[in-house]
Amino acid sequence: MTAPTAPARTSSFARFLSPVGLLALMWAIQLADAVLPGSFTGWGLRSWDLGSLQGIVLGPLLHADWAHLIANSVPFLVLGCLVAVEGAKRFWTVTAVVALVGGVGTWFVNAPGTLTVGSSVLVFGYFGYVVMRVFAPGRLAHRVAYAAIAVIVVVLYGTSMFTGIFGAGTGVSWQAHLFGAIGGGLMAFRPARAVGTRE
Question: 86-99, pLDDT tens digit by residue?
Answer without folding.
Answer: 999 999 999 999 99
